[in-house]
TrEMBL record:
Pfam families: AtpR
Source domain of life: Bacteria
Record keywords, A-Z: Membrane, Transmembrane, Transmembrane helix
Protein name stated in the entry: F1/F0 ATPase, Methanosarcina type, subunit 2
Native source species: Desulfocurvibacter africanus subsp. africanus str. Walvis Bay
TM stretches of this protein: 20-45, 57-77, 83-103
Amino acid sequence: MSIAKTVEFGIGDMVRTADIMILAGALAWGVLLCLLFYGGLWLTLRSLGGKGRPRRFLWLSFLARLGLTAAGFWAVLQLGLPAMAAALLSFSLLRLWLVPALGRSLPREKRS
C-alpha cells in the first residue's frame, strides 16, 4: 500500500500529493529568496548614507545577495525543473509587488 495519494484533475491527469508538496515548498522558497534579495537591497540602500566607502559596501552587499540567491535556486533545481519554475514564478511575482512597496519607504533626495 502506497502512502502517496493521488489527486485527479478534470483532464484525467494524476498528480501525486508529494509532487504538490514539492511545488508548494518551491513556491515558498522562491518567496523567501525574493525577500532575502530585495530585503537585503533595501537594507543596503537605507544604511548607505553613513558608510565611509559606499561603493565597496554596495558591491559586497550585491555579491552576498547574489551568492545566497543563486545557491538557493541551485538547491531548488535539485528537485527538478517544475520546482525551479515554481520558485522562479513566485520570486518574479513577489518582486512585482515588493520593489515598488519598498521603494516608497526609502528617503528621497531633495533636488533644487
